[in-house]
Specification:
Blueprint: E1 7-15, E2 28-45, E3 49-54, E4 60-64, H1 76-87, E5 95-102, H2 111-126, H3 133-148, H4 155-162, E6 167-172, E7 177-182, E8 191-196, H5 208-225, H6 243-249, H7 255-280, H8 283-299, H9 306-316, E9 321-326, E10 334-339, H10 344-358, E11 367-371, E12 373-374
Parallel strand pairs: 3-5
Antiparallel strand pairs: 1-2, 2-5, 2-6, 2-12, 3-4, 6-7, 8-10, 8-11, 9-10
Helix pairs in contact: 1-2, 1-3, 2-3, 3-4, 5-7, 7-8, 9-10
Length: 379
């Protein structure tokens, strides 16, 4: 007999068509939430016990809200990290029992932020804690940085909280000012393809944190070259450096730092242009900018596995795809594409055949799913 639970929650996965790799430098981003994500059915426990079963991963998260937390470097860290994050400010006395399910191969879709938001909301619900949206986002960022070990910005969590169906989310991560830009009535229909390369990935074990450090190093050096006040390294971001100063001193930077800065400044310009194209209903121009963002992520940010680079080249040559790029940090995982729904069958056939011709070893794990935009997290 299937167990019955008190509550049902859903947290969407997200994609970032423009604004990749810049949120940790206080840049401009855009995003969509998808109608695929994390579902969690749960109830509270009066004795503080915790029992969470995942339908996607082996083992259960079992313990208590009173136990000492030790990293196991498994999916269960996200559950107990949520408890410890909340205990910094709140009394957590009730535990949870429940079942969690992810509805897609999640690499590059910000599944980590989605599950963190899911567990934070669950523990808040059963303990009578009410959070504002900004408080929830900040707690999720804290857990990912502190307990999971990834020095994330706020793109993922903000998209998964604030996004709405049939709207592009636009956020300035410097001051958190944001807009929801509805689909223009003149815009053609579109869907979002999520293309799983067949290769899972883990951000904490990837070059993600090194890229963040390279961007910060570029900002610190540019300030020094321009005789600007540069303060603490930890508090230095490329957003602090005007574009004119970057152009004046970029050639003095070590090549890797220069490339990271090149991506940052060009990506901010693409976001601005993309927002204007979106407002006009010009999905062709918007998609072209998404392809350019992907190229910059490969050449300047130097992200992207061989599999994701191949997918990028294939998408750029496939009819019916307005724009595409790898999703997330690009160290394996998934790619995303904004597509004309009339071409879905042809896109699936063309991309699958060309990709598996290069990587036949992934024939059993490669997949293409088509999604729509969706609202943010709900309980």
């Amino acid at each position: 007999m299937k167990e019955s639970f008190e509550y049902h929650s859903f947290c969407p996965y997200r994609i970032c068509p423009l604004g990749a790799h810049v949120d940790h430098q206080h840049g401009l981003i855009t995003g969509f939430a998808l109608d695929k994500g994390i579902t969690f059915d749960f109830s509270g426990t009066d004795d503080g016990s915790v029992s969470v079963h995942s339908t996607n991963y082996d083992g259960d998260a079992r313990g208590s809200v009173t136990q000492a937390f030790e990293r196991s470097y498994a999916w269960t860290d996200f559950v107990f990290g949520a408890i410890k994050t909340l205990q910094r400010q709140y009394q957590i006395q009730r535990g949870i029992t429940g079942v969690v399910t992810g509805t897609l191969h999640a690499g590059g879709l910000s599944s980590s932020a989605a599950v963190i938001l899911t567990y934070l909301l669950a523990f808040c619900k059963v303990n009578g804690i009410e959070l504002t949206a900004p408080e929830l986002i900040q707690l999720a960022i804290y857990e990912e940085r502190t307990f999971i070990g990834v020095n994330v910005g706020k793109l993922d969590q903000s998209c998964e909280v604030y996004c709405r169906k049939n709207a592009l989310f636009y956020l300035d991560t410097l001051d958190d000012s944001s807009k929801l830009l509805p689909v223009n009535t003149t815009m053609p229909d579109f869907e979002i393809a999520v293309i799983f390369s067949g290769v899972e990935r883990s951000l904490a074990g990837s070059a993600y944190n090194m890229r963040v450090d390279e961007c910060k190093s570029a900002s610190y050096a540019l300030k020094a070259f321009a005789h600007l006040e540069y303060g603490r390294y930890a508090d230095s971001y490329l957003r602090d450096v005007p574009r004119g100063i970057y152009l004046a001193y970029r050639d003095k930077l070590p090549e890797s730092w220069r490339r990271r800065a090149d991506h940052y400044y060009s990506e901010n310009e693409r976001v601005k242009a993309g927002v204007e194209a979106w407002k006009r209903g010009d999905i062709v121009s918007f998609g072209r900018l998404v392809f350019e963002s992907g190229e910059s992520s490969i050449s300047s940010y130097e992200a992207g596995s061989p599999q994701l680079k191949a997918l990028h080249r294939i998408m750029a040559q496939t009819d019916g795809i307005y724009g595409g790029r790898f999703s997330g940090a690009g160290f394996n995982g998934s790619a995303m594409a904004i597509v004309n729904p009339e071409y879905k069958d042809r896109i699936t056939q063309a991309v699958t055949e060309q990709y598996l011709a290069q990587f036949p070893e992934y024939k059993d794990s490669f997949s293409i799913e088509y999604c729509h935009t969706a609202d943010g997290v709900s309980l």
